[in-house]
Amino acid sequence: MQDTTLYEHLLGLKSPWSVKSVDLSLEEQRVVVEVVIKPGQVWADPIDNTRRAHINGWSERQWRHLDIPQAGIVHDRFHVAKYLGDAVDAVRKQEHRSLLQAGGSPLTGSKWAWQKTYADGHSSEAVAFRALNLLNLKTSRAWRIKETFREFWRYRYTGAAKRFFDAWSNNAMRSRLEPVKKVVRMLRRHEAGLLNYSKHRISNACAEGFNSAIQLIKANARGFRNFTNYRARILFHCGKLDIRLG
User: Fold this and answer.
1) Extended strands (E) in the chain
2) What is the pTM for the complete model shown?
3) For 109-156, what is each residue's pLDDT tens digit?
4) At CB < 8 A and 24+ separation, what contacts does 237-243 make?
5) Preceding omega of 106 cis (within 30 degrees of 0)
Protein backbone atom coordinates (compact mmCIF):
# COMPACT_ATOMS: atom_id res chain seq x y z
CA MET A 1 0.00 0.00 0.00
CA GLN A 2 1.37 3.42 -0.95
CA ASP A 3 2.01 5.88 1.86
CA THR A 4 -0.50 8.35 0.37
CA THR A 5 -3.22 5.68 0.36
CA LEU A 6 -2.33 4.67 3.92
CA TYR A 7 -2.76 8.20 5.22
CA GLU A 8 -6.03 8.63 3.34
CA HIS A 9 -7.27 5.62 5.33
CA LEU A 10 -5.82 6.93 8.60
CA LEU A 11 -7.38 10.37 8.14
CA GLY A 12 -10.67 8.97 6.84
CA LEU A 13 -10.47 11.08 3.68
CA LYS A 14 -13.04 10.67 0.94
CA SER A 15 -13.48 12.31 -2.45
CA PRO A 16 -12.88 15.15 -3.26
CA TRP A 17 -10.11 15.12 -0.62
CA SER A 18 -6.90 13.14 -1.19
CA VAL A 19 -3.33 12.94 0.10
CA LYS A 20 -0.88 14.37 -2.41
CA SER A 21 2.37 13.61 -0.59
CA VAL A 22 3.82 12.24 2.65
CA ASP A 23 7.24 13.49 3.72
CA LEU A 24 9.41 13.03 6.79
CA SER A 25 10.59 16.34 8.25
CA LEU A 26 13.91 15.71 9.97
CA GLU A 27 13.90 19.24 11.36
CA GLU A 28 10.48 18.87 13.03
CA GLN A 29 10.86 15.10 13.56
CA ARG A 30 7.37 14.41 12.29
CA VAL A 31 5.49 13.24 9.23
CA VAL A 32 4.18 16.06 7.03
CA VAL A 33 1.05 15.11 5.08
CA GLU A 34 -0.12 17.35 2.22
CA VAL A 35 -3.88 17.09 1.71
CA VAL A 36 -5.35 18.49 -1.52
CA ILE A 37 -8.75 18.83 -3.12
CA LYS A 38 -9.99 18.89 -6.69
CA PRO A 39 -9.67 22.36 -8.26
CA GLY A 40 -12.99 24.11 -8.74
CA GLN A 41 -14.77 22.12 -6.03
CA VAL A 42 -18.05 23.77 -5.01
CA TRP A 43 -19.05 24.01 -1.36
CA ALA A 44 -22.23 24.95 0.42
CA ASP A 45 -21.78 28.00 2.62
CA PRO A 46 -21.88 26.87 6.28
CA ILE A 47 -24.08 29.82 7.24
CA ASP A 48 -26.40 30.17 4.27
CA ASN A 49 -26.77 27.10 2.02
CA THR A 50 -28.07 29.24 -0.83
CA ARG A 51 -24.68 30.89 -1.25
CA ARG A 52 -21.74 28.97 -2.62
CA ALA A 53 -18.06 29.11 -1.82
CA HIS A 54 -15.45 27.73 -4.17
CA ILE A 55 -11.87 26.58 -4.15
CA ASN A 56 -9.47 29.25 -5.28
CA GLY A 57 -6.92 27.70 -7.63
CA TRP A 58 -4.80 30.73 -8.45
CA SER A 59 -1.14 29.93 -7.89
CA GLU A 60 -0.39 33.42 -6.59
CA ARG A 61 -2.91 32.84 -3.80
CA GLN A 62 -1.57 29.49 -2.66
CA TRP A 63 -1.96 30.33 1.02
CA ARG A 64 -5.71 30.82 0.71
CA HIS A 65 -7.17 27.54 -0.47
CA LEU A 66 -10.80 28.13 0.47
CA ASP A 67 -12.87 31.23 -0.18
CA ILE A 68 -15.40 30.54 2.57
CA PRO A 69 -17.18 33.49 4.23
CA GLN A 70 -17.03 33.73 8.02
CA ALA A 71 -13.95 31.47 8.12
CA GLY A 72 -11.12 32.59 10.36
CA ILE A 73 -7.61 31.33 11.04
CA VAL A 74 -6.78 30.64 14.68
CA HIS A 75 -3.10 30.28 15.51
CA ASP A 76 -2.39 27.56 18.04
CA ARG A 77 -0.80 28.41 21.39
CA PHE A 78 1.29 25.22 21.30
CA HIS A 79 3.25 26.40 18.27
CA VAL A 80 3.54 29.99 19.53
CA ALA A 81 5.02 28.69 22.78
CA LYS A 82 7.50 26.61 20.78
CA TYR A 83 8.66 29.63 18.77
CA LEU A 84 9.16 31.67 21.95
CA GLY A 85 10.94 28.78 23.67
CA ASP A 86 13.27 28.42 20.70
CA ALA A 87 14.00 32.16 20.86
CA VAL A 88 14.96 31.87 24.54
CA ASP A 89 17.28 28.97 23.71
CA ALA A 90 18.87 30.94 20.87
CA VAL A 91 19.59 33.82 23.25
CA ARG A 92 21.01 31.35 25.79
CA LYS A 93 23.37 29.82 23.22
CA GLN A 94 24.67 33.22 22.11
CA GLU A 95 25.16 34.45 25.67
CA HIS A 96 26.74 31.18 26.80
CA ARG A 97 29.40 31.38 24.07
CA SER A 98 30.11 35.01 24.93
CA LEU A 99 30.46 34.32 28.67
CA LEU A 100 32.72 31.31 28.08
CA GLN A 101 35.06 33.48 26.03
CA ALA A 102 35.10 35.99 28.91
CA GLY A 103 36.14 33.33 31.41
CA GLY A 104 33.09 31.40 32.64
CA SER A 105 29.36 30.91 32.15
CA PRO A 106 26.63 30.21 34.73
CA LEU A 107 24.50 28.95 31.83
CA THR A 108 26.43 25.69 31.48
CA GLY A 109 23.99 22.77 31.51
CA SER A 110 20.95 25.05 31.87
CA LYS A 111 19.28 24.44 28.49
CA TRP A 112 16.24 22.59 29.81
CA ALA A 113 15.94 24.71 32.94
CA TRP A 114 14.62 27.59 30.82
CA GLN A 115 12.05 25.37 29.10
CA LYS A 116 10.49 23.76 32.18
CA THR A 117 7.50 24.82 34.26
CA TYR A 118 8.11 24.60 37.99
CA ALA A 119 4.80 23.61 39.57
CA ASP A 120 6.49 23.05 42.93
CA GLY A 121 8.25 26.30 43.72
CA HIS A 122 10.04 24.75 46.70
CA SER A 123 11.81 21.95 44.80
CA SER A 124 15.59 22.05 44.55
CA GLU A 125 15.31 22.59 40.77
CA ALA A 126 12.97 25.56 41.24
CA VAL A 127 15.23 27.13 43.88
CA ALA A 128 18.30 26.71 41.66
CA PHE A 129 16.45 28.18 38.69
CA ARG A 130 15.34 31.24 40.67
CA ALA A 131 18.93 31.88 41.69
CA LEU A 132 20.04 31.60 38.05
CA ASN A 133 17.19 33.79 36.86
CA LEU A 134 18.12 36.55 39.32
CA LEU A 135 21.46 37.04 37.59
CA ASN A 136 21.68 39.94 35.17
CA LEU A 137 21.49 37.76 32.06
CA LYS A 138 20.06 38.35 28.59
CA THR A 139 18.59 34.86 28.78
CA SER A 140 16.63 35.89 31.88
CA ARG A 141 15.12 38.82 29.99
CA ALA A 142 14.18 36.59 27.06
CA TRP A 143 12.60 34.06 29.45
CA ARG A 144 10.52 36.76 31.19
CA ILE A 145 9.25 38.00 27.82
CA LYS A 146 8.21 34.45 26.93
CA GLU A 147 6.52 33.86 30.27
CA THR A 148 4.68 37.18 30.17
CA PHE A 149 3.04 36.17 26.89
CA ARG A 150 1.21 33.35 28.70
CA GLU A 151 -1.26 35.99 29.91
CA PHE A 152 -2.37 36.61 26.31
CA TRP A 153 -4.25 33.30 26.20
CA ARG A 154 -6.42 34.29 29.18
CA TYR A 155 -8.17 37.14 27.37
CA ARG A 156 -11.70 36.47 26.13
CA TYR A 157 -12.31 39.80 24.40
CA THR A 158 -10.47 40.78 21.24
CA GLY A 159 -10.02 44.41 22.26
CA ALA A 160 -8.34 43.53 25.54
CA ALA A 161 -6.22 40.86 23.84
CA LYS A 162 -5.03 43.38 21.24
CA ARG A 163 -4.09 45.95 23.90
CA PHE A 164 -2.06 43.32 25.72
CA PHE A 165 -0.40 42.11 22.51
CA ASP A 166 0.53 45.64 21.43
CA ALA A 167 2.08 46.45 24.82
CA TRP A 168 3.87 43.11 25.02
CA SER A 169 5.25 43.24 21.47
CA ASN A 170 6.46 46.84 21.87
CA ASN A 171 8.29 45.89 25.05
CA ALA A 172 9.78 42.79 23.41
CA MET A 173 11.01 44.80 20.42
CA ARG A 174 12.89 47.11 22.80
CA SER A 175 14.70 44.14 24.36
CA ARG A 176 17.58 44.26 21.84
CA LEU A 177 17.42 40.46 21.72
CA GLU A 178 17.35 39.60 18.02
CA PRO A 179 15.98 36.01 18.33
CA VAL A 180 13.08 37.38 20.39
CA LYS A 181 12.49 40.28 18.00
CA LYS A 182 12.41 37.85 15.07
CA VAL A 183 9.56 35.90 16.69
CA VAL A 184 7.71 39.11 17.58
CA ARG A 185 7.88 40.28 13.96
CA MET A 186 6.44 36.94 12.86
CA LEU A 187 3.62 37.15 15.43
CA ARG A 188 2.79 40.67 14.30
CA ARG A 189 2.41 39.41 10.74
CA HIS A 190 -0.12 36.88 12.02
CA GLU A 191 -1.80 39.13 14.58
CA ALA A 192 -5.32 38.50 13.24
CA GLY A 193 -4.96 34.75 13.73
CA LEU A 194 -3.66 35.27 17.26
CA LEU A 195 -6.53 37.57 18.19
CA ASN A 196 -9.04 35.05 16.84
CA TYR A 197 -8.11 32.77 19.73
CA SER A 198 -9.85 35.11 22.17
CA LYS A 199 -13.12 34.57 20.26
CA HIS A 200 -12.94 30.89 19.33
CA ARG A 201 -10.62 29.51 22.06
CA ILE A 202 -9.78 26.38 20.11
CA SER A 203 -6.51 24.48 20.02
CA ASN A 204 -5.05 21.51 18.21
CA ALA A 205 -3.43 20.24 21.41
CA CYS A 206 -5.76 17.23 21.36
CA ALA A 207 -4.75 16.39 17.79
CA GLU A 208 -1.07 16.77 18.71
CA GLY A 209 -1.61 14.39 21.61
CA PHE A 210 -3.29 11.80 19.40
CA ASN A 211 -0.52 12.11 16.83
CA SER A 212 2.12 11.46 19.50
CA ALA A 213 0.19 8.47 20.85
CA ILE A 214 -0.21 6.96 17.37
CA GLN A 215 3.47 7.43 16.59
CA LEU A 216 4.33 5.67 19.87
CA ILE A 217 2.02 2.76 18.99
CA LYS A 218 3.77 2.36 15.65
CA ALA A 219 7.24 2.61 17.19
CA ASN A 220 6.51 0.07 19.92
CA ALA A 221 5.16 -2.44 17.39
CA ARG A 222 8.12 -1.91 15.03
CA GLY A 223 5.59 -1.48 12.23
CA PHE A 224 2.48 -3.37 11.07
CA ARG A 225 1.94 -5.88 8.27
CA ASN A 226 -1.28 -4.26 7.11
CA PHE A 227 -3.51 -1.27 7.74
CA THR A 228 -6.25 -3.35 9.42
CA ASN A 229 -3.93 -4.33 12.26
CA TYR A 230 -2.64 -0.77 12.56
CA ARG A 231 -6.19 0.61 12.75
CA ALA A 232 -7.22 -1.99 15.35
CA ARG A 233 -4.28 -1.09 17.58
CA ILE A 234 -5.04 2.65 17.28
CA LEU A 235 -8.70 2.11 18.19
CA PHE A 236 -7.76 -0.14 21.12
CA HIS A 237 -5.37 2.39 22.66
CA CYS A 238 -7.02 5.67 21.63
CA GLY A 239 -10.71 4.78 21.22
CA LYS A 240 -11.65 4.96 24.93
CA LEU A 241 -13.10 1.47 24.72
CA ASP A 242 -14.93 0.09 27.74
CA ILE A 243 -13.24 -3.29 28.22
CA ARG A 244 -14.56 -4.03 31.69
CA LEU A 245 -15.90 -7.57 32.05
CA GLY A 246 -19.58 -7.94 32.84
Assistant:
1) 17-25, 30-37, 42-44, 52-54
2) 0.59
3) 999 999 988 877 888 999 999 999 999 899 999 999 999 999 999 999
4) 237/213, 238/210, 238/213, 238/214
5) no
